[in-house]
Structures
1.
Amino acid sequence: MSRSNDIDTLLSPLFRVLAIAFAVTGTLFFLFPDGTIDTLNRAGSWLGLPPAPHLTHRFWLGLGTAYMAVVTVLAWRISPAPSERRLLMEPLMVGKATSSLTCLLFAIFDQPFFIYIANFVVDGALVGIVWWAWRQTAPNGGGRGGGHLDERSNQLLQRIAEAFLPPLDGRAGDAEGIGLGGRVAAHLESQGAGARIGGAVALRWLNVAPFVLGTPRTLSRLPVDERAMVLDRMERSRWLILRTPVVALKLLLGLHAYRQPDLRADIGVDDDWLNARLEQARARRAAGEKGPFPEPQSPDGVS
Amino acid sequence: MACLDGAKLTRNHRVRCDVVIVGTGAGGAVFAAEAAKAGLDVVMLEEGGYYTGKDLSGDAKFSFDHLYRDGGLTATLGRPPIPVPVGCCVGGTTMVNSGTCYRTPDFVLQRWEREFGLEGATELDNDYAAIEQDLSIKPVPDALYGPQHQRVEDAIKELGWAGSRIPRNEDGCISTGTCAMGCPSDGKTSMAVSKVPEALAAGATLWTRAPVRRILRHRNQVVGVAARAGTPEQPTDLLVTAETTVIACGALHTPALLLASGIGGPWIGRNLHLHPATRVVARFPDEIRGWQEVPQAYNIDEFIDDGVFIQGQFVPPDVQAPVIPGWGVEHRQRMAAFPRLASFGALISDRSAGRVRPAGRSTRPVATYRLQPADRDRLIFGIARTIEAFLAAGAEEVYSGVAAMPVVRSRTELARFERLQPPATQIEIMAFHPMGTVRAGGPEIAASDPWGRLYDVEGIVVSDGSLLPTSNRINPQLTIMALARRAARKLVAP
């Protein structure tokens, strides 16, 4: 699977969701302009912000609806092949950035209506998301391999690895000694942008998830034994959002921990058995009992 | 004969042949061997690399990186998401399975014929027999049979349940215990060391590392495929035109490739069936050393009519570790008893059905699948019966794989376990054997005719697990091979 295919798998549904969200929002604005303003005014009133007035005529609504139609079509046209169509992300970003910044200016120099502030925040966030997607789909961007987990993710991974494989008296190896966190990070990085980004998101979620279980500290700030207990509780949870990332991480931690010869020997797995059979297999091959099997050759020169 | 590495193709290349086959797993390789032996000019295309025993050492990480698709992390989306590990190399999933080969039960074949119009499903005996002979399929012999399976077999007899030794495709197995990581001794007669070399010896050409991006079509006729070769930095196009195009990428990727190529019909991608499975691990008071025997050697078929099939399933510690309950010190202490652990799994015939679609314009499949409550109940039933067998065999502690009650130590606790109604999200589930997404049968309810020829377009045949109309209740590779053999023979001599 190529890297562009990999990042497109992640971005295609994202742009499809954006297109649907733009279409729904634009339709609501068009059909219920005053109702939309009233709803946002109510939210603003909780923050003590003044209510924005209703529209007095429909000219700007026409232009606003046209803008929503354009961004909907852009997101929809990008969604089937984001890497190929990344240039369409640029007008989308320009539109959303203009919408966001003009609302910021209005909030500062006109009135601090909540509707301005909300639009500044939401469209600003959308600029960030599309900009990230635009970078990921660049010909040599992070989405095409070579990307690394960020430092914070690496730290969190190390913390979780320590909880999985803590030092134990009389036992060989622990997470720090075998660099378990780094091994799992390298694994995620090798699986492309989807795994790397998904991993980073999952690690941040796991870090704050103890609050859901009533533990008033982030996972990384808990002592190692409490960290293990919290992860165990999450693994037993009936909620997928808690259980799935823990199970997935445990799978990778187990894979990388127990392939280490020291740890295998420590739990009584003698690789001598396997090594003797590998030697037997080599001898059979040398004697021509098995194989040789075809070897792929360079196709240069094929007609 | 030519065996070529697509990643080393430095300029665009065009090939013309009689039959192009996409995928070299159970369906593709058997089809290729039959067609090549009949004198047709055959080209096989494989996305993955070509690995045989000399490249393998039982290392799980290497296998996940090189033999499995998505590093072994292929999964369906749904509640819960379910991992479905599949192979991506010459030989496909036959490289990474346990070599278990059963004929599909007659009552299933009769149903396929009667309800789905899969003509000739009950007349596969000759095809089965030919494959069994070619791949040296036979029940696990005494020399390869170990204490993990022997204990369960003895317990089953005491319980009065039916069970039997598993027939496997092996010729000279030396019990490395690493079937799922690729056989380092070439004892398992996977497609990579049996039917693919047979096809090559009969004059076929194989391109490895050449993933197919599109099926080429002229009006209502499929005329070949376009593959991407070369390297990511210097990609090249490999175009193969053929009289007949055979798609054999498995039930997840075949429908995605068809749909991404604009080839469809109402049934393509629908009707995804899986064999959701669990793994139950037991700790015995004394050593078993399960890695020193064939990992899958005995099955309990007492409950097959209920859609529950229980099989031995030992895996190395790096793969077993995630199933062992607990974190930290507790987990380490349990892992320290590894030589005393045994492992069996229950797979169920699902009533749930999912769907496969391509992601955007790519050929990457997105599979959605929601486990129905009836299937969850059968999983719990299968886990309970496996625990019962282990307790009868003398296990002192059993790890259920169910988060609501991960450890069971006695029959009393087992009774309590059976009263649990845990949601599917709390069960450790993995699924195998994707099937049904290009269902074969009559034109009203199927995408292809009984020989895998699509109804909607000419010149294309599907030859993999996609064709099976429903779950076949057991490991399907032998049935996929038998259907491929008869489809190839139909092509050669219509």
2.
Amino acid sequence: MSAEATIAVNLARCVGSTMCIQVAPSVFALTDEGQSCVIDAGGDPMERIVEAAENCPMEAIRVEDLRTGTVLFPLTEES
Amino acid sequence: MALSVSDDLTAPEVIADPHSYYRRLRDQNPVHWNDRWGGWVLTRHDDVVQVLRDSEAFSSDRMGYLERELTENEVEPIAPIFDVLSRWIVFTDPPLHTKLRMLVNRKFSPKMVETYRGTVRKIVNDVLDEIEPQGHMEVVRDFAYQVPMTVILELMGVPDLIRVKIKEWSEQLGLFFFIRADEPRRRQFATQGISALAGHLTHYLTHVIEEKAKNPDNDLISLLLRAEMDGELTRDDVVATCVLLAFGGHETTMNLIANGTLALIRHPDQWERLKEDPGIIKTAVEELSRYDGSVMTTVRWARRDVEIGGETIKAGQRVLVGLSGANRDPAQFEDPDVLDLTRDPNLHVAFAHGIHVCVGAPLARMEAQEAFTALTSRLPCPKLETEELEYLPTVVGRSLRALRVVF
């Protein structure tokens, strides 16, 4: 599946809860440092990716629609 | 090396000022074998994060460990409570942990939590409406407890009538495992019916769950029951998770609000700063969690030999993971003993780290944000009625018995 999303994991926030990996296991994986990283932005359907971001207890995941640039999560950007 | 730090983790001076104790330990021997407690004590941020991230090498199966420690005669009277506690998300390892966590996480994600903010704001202000005209309060009982208790019961869908009882039962349950392991009273509690008392909470919630199964709603208990119907959870898992939520849903947030209020009272400039600029509330809550959080330590058990900071933790040994110690580590935080409500970045571990990072953290954060915003905007910075503060003598929780203030 080709990627439809730009996904960013904020490493200053990620605490390695692995919630994203449970929801979208083909997109996210754990690094040796115990933090989340994107292994294949097209690995799971878009709604799964957004659900993964929503389930992050730290709001460490940002998802953008690759074509339109619309931010799909978080809905309100923090400073 | 001769240590000038005692191994008594519940000595009165440690309970009164754990931060100084853990600082001395970190300065002198950051990976310390505590003979009295019978395990390693970690106080450096790096070491703490290493252990919390490595759930393969370090188990959270507290009940399994306790069970091995006690004799059969000692286990028998507390067997029912053991069964409940052994199913708690915090004390389980994957795969059961993953299953429970995923379910509960949905209701506690930051996105879901935002939808409760209006309700929480109203609860906070209703509580303050009662307090404001009086000119004094006991912060723990009148404020810090009221807010999270009301919120968690509403989220779970448990009738509010029973809240006084739930507090009493939760305190009993807290005494059971927050108290130090070598405390003779723990065994006494166990044998003299502590489990029966805590069992009331289980019994009551079992009844609520049965009723809810007949009339499902949109609440957390109904969500868990749907997972039971789908064959993902057993009824025992549902009951245990509800006991955890009723207990953990108020106890720790209560302490966070009480400890944070005390920190603000002791730093009136920071109280005024928040009052003048409520826009800093998010970093403020992170800083209050770091500065004097509600959970000082958490425990892990090594599954295999692991090297931490030059010492070998052997398979089977336990590790006291010093969250409070890590949160004041100068290697991670500039001026760690200074309360700075705008500190950013703030990579504290007050809610732990890794797969067991507090599932309720987004909710606790939001509740604390609402509580401190309303408190500082509505009341002048209070004065303590007494400087003699008493904390529960536990290694885990940082729990004020009472906090009397006038304003």
